[in-house]
Design a protein that fits this description.
By secondary structure, the protein is α+β, with helices and mostly antiparallel strands. The chain contains 11 helices and 22 strands. It is 27% helix and 28% strand.
């Protein structure tokens, strides 16, 4: 049956919050978006206007939702130019209306409204639509891990016989660099970001956006640090950390690591200090930026993407193994897509595109 379809921002429809939450509850497996507190934080308090900026496809015949694209408006800096952008977080179409052209129409709407569109963790069904709409695709974001307690890690790992011996060798090779650290002020967040964006394509990381994500998150507790190689804090980098527990495993997630490269080795020594202090079993870090990644490689971290001798899940509720254990990325830009396609000069981390989101699955009351 043909329907009268209207696509627009959620706040422009006469739909209650319960209507939107119910749609996710019926059509999306991860029930975190059915949590009213989380929905409000994710989609309403995230923007300055405090309006629900999700994109809704509505059947105006009966005023029912047939599709939602969850998004978070966030400026993107491409070639040091500020562009109107958004993170695409959760794309959901009513199950009985797959292959009816609703998804492509939502993307057409978005491409008219924004200069840059970026999303992660792309399903096979969605990928074909993105590719037909001129998005670029990367199968996996580089991921680096450091292991502190292989006994705790090995039962969840896939590894070759020589790996434990290699790990013992790597433990002897780490260099310790002098570091200084403290909690960052809003001004320091802004100063580090303004320095970083001059030569890196990346999302806005000014204090207003960082405070929303790090201080107002309804589920997670983050720890933020400004780290420097000198005690005057003239060569600064921002490090964001989150500790995650799974059964008897204690993980440290590096949510963000960016700033002045003259302090990157000091930052890695700080992470080593922090991990040992908190008795961490494994640390991981996701980053597309090769100018940052080379420091992790040269500090003897294991590149999951580049190794065929060790693999470790990147999601734990439920446990997910993919090869490699990382996440995919799609991106589109109205201009300078050629420059944008050089991901080595672009910085995406676990903070971006809702990659660090709690899981709360149907028939499973466990929460991360």
């Amino acid at each position: 049956k043909k329907m009268n379809l209207k696509i627009d921002y959620a706040y422009k429809f006469k739909l209650s919050l319960k209507d939107k939450i119910k749609f996710y509850k019926l059509n999306w497996n991860n029930k975190i978006l059915s949590d009213e507190t989380f929905y409000r934080w994710q989609f309403i308090s995230s923007n300055q206007a405090k309006k629900d900026k999700n994109i809704i496809a509505c059947n105006t015949d009966d005023n029912t939702i047939v599709g939602i694209m969850g998004l978070n408006e966030r400026y993107f800096w491409l070639k040091n130019k500020k562009l109107k952008s958004c993170e695409l977080t959760t794309w959901c179409v009513r199950k009985d209306l797959y292959n009816k052209g609703i998804g492509p129409k939502i993307l057409d709407f978005l491409k008219k409204k924004y200069d840059v569109l970026i999303g992660m963790s792309i399903s096979d069904d969605a990928l074909s639509v993105y590719l037909r709409k001129d998005f670029q695709y990367s199968d996996s974001i580089p991921r680096f891990v450091k292991i502190y307690d292989f006994i705790k890690v090995k039962d969840l790992s896939v590894y070759k016989n020589f790996f434990p011996k290699l790990l013992r060798y790597k433990d002897t090779q780490n260099n310790i660099n002098k570091f200084y650290y403290k909690k960052p002020t809003n001004n320091q967040f802004n100063q580090v970001f303004n320095f970083f964006k001059k030569n890196t394509n990346c999302f806005d990381r000014t204090s207003s956006k960082m405070n929303w994500r790090l201080k107002k998150h309804p589920k997670y507790k983050y720890n933020s640090f400004i780290v420097s190689s000198d005690n005057k804090f003239e060569k600064n980098l921002i490090i964001i950390l989150r500790i995650e527990n799974y059964k008897n495993l204690k993980l440290l997630r590096i949510i963000d690591f960016y700033g002045n490269n003259k302090s990157y080795f000091s930052g890695l020594s700080f992470i080593d200090y922090y991990s040992r202090k908190h008795k961490i079993n494994l640390v991981d870090f996701f980053s597309t930026n090769s100018l940052i990644n080379k420091y992790f490689i040269n500090h003897n971290w294991i590149s999951i993407k580049d190794s065929n001798f060790f693999d470790f899940p990147h999601l734990f509720e439920p446990l997910e193994f993919r090869k490699p254990s990382s996440t995919s990325l799609i991106y589109w830009s109205k201009k300078n897509l050629f420059e944008f396609s050089d991901l080595s000069k672009t910085y995406f981390s676990k903070q971006d595109c809702d990659f660090d989101r709690p899981a709360y699955f149907q028939n499973d009351k466990r929460k991360i």
